[in-house]
Amino acid sequence: MKDQDRQNFKVRFSRVFDHIDAHLDQDMSLKTLAGIAAYSPFHFHRQFSALFDITVTQYIRLIRMRRAAHSLLFRKNLPITEIAFDAGYDSPESFSRAFRQTQGQSPSDFRANPDWDHWQEPYAKLQTVRITSMSSPTHPGIFDEVAILDFPETRTACLDHIGPPERIGQTIQRFIAWRKARHLPPSKHATFNIVWCNPDDTPPDEFRMGLAVATKHQLTEDDTETGFYEQILPAGRCARLRHIGSDQLLGESALRLYRDWLPQSGETPGDFPLMFQRVAFYPDVPEHETITDIFLPLA
């Protein structure tokens, strides 16, 4: 297949991914998805598999299972029965069987004692599909998407995750529990990640990511003993790129900011790490509606 033909296929099938993301809670027939791709229903599923090395049915099931896994881990207030129905299953029993096949644990065991080192492995294929389906990463639109603004000094309470990136979910659970106990909801107190290092060139045991919440709350001795500390996000000029969609592609967006925008901008990075502001959270919103603002401090 020629590069131009492959690109045309990506454009057509990207409409399918958009439709799946927007209708994940509904039944989706192959005929409907084929029509969205303007493709013959007799050959659509084979073409999808040939392009992405996964069937469209498997793709939809994995997306739903990934959302269910996130809900089990990070939305403790949601009953498993509700999570099962949201994932498209008629009963908790059928959901439990399917979840165990994917994750190797029952939903209740997974919620209570997840295998933090490996829990995301079943969903790695989704990241590959998303990257494969993307249009050219150097498209000129990024130059219009990046805005330079004055970032205000922001006082935060921060908890660092130190160790293998695969285990960050365990730290996220601690962070969520702490902010809930102190009545610091995301709707009123902004949430940030501080990217202290690059996971691609940092030994796993030395990886560090800050989880921070904007607050004027004075930290107590109990807070500091649990690992929280005061972190001031400094005021200054920042380049902002808004990332909409899966966290699995957040690194790709950050790379575009450094690789495509920074060299032609005439700007120099400042003396503070990259920051992510979490604006709309998955799984509270559908994955395609998740919003993260990437801030690159400038000199």
What does this 3D model show about the protein?
It is a single chain. The protein has 299 residues and is α+β, with helices and mostly antiparallel strands. It contains twelve helices and eight strands. The protein has an eight-stranded antiparallel sheet. The chain is globular and about 60 Å long.
Q: What does the overall shape look like?
A: globular
Low-confidence stretches: 136-140
List the total number of helices: 12
Helix/strand class: alpha+beta
Tell me the fraction of residues in β-strands, as a range: 15-25%
Query: What would you report as the Rg, rounded to the nearest angstrom?
Result: 21 Å
Mean pLDDT: 90
Largest sheet at a glance? 8 strands, antiparallel
Q: Trace the largest sheet across and list its strands.
A: 1-6-8-7-3-4-2-5
Quaternary class? single chain
> What percent of the residues sit in helical stretches (DSSP H or I)?
40-55%
Order of secondary-structure elements: HHHHHHHHHEEHEEHEEHEE
Q: Terminal Cα separation, in Å? A: 46 Å
Number of strands: 8
In brief:
The chain has 299 residues and is an alpha+beta fold.
Task: Give the topology, please.
Layout: H1 3-22, H2 30-36, H3 44-52, H4 56-74, H5 80-86, H6 92-103, H7 107-112, H8 124-133, H9 141-145, E1 147-151, E2 154-162, H10 168-181, E3 191-195, E4 208-214, H11 221-225, E5 228-233, E6 236-244, H12 250-265, E7 274-280, E8 291-297
Antiparallel strand pairs: 1-6, 2-4, 2-5, 3-4, 3-7, 6-8, 7-8
Helix pairs in contact: 4-5, 5-6
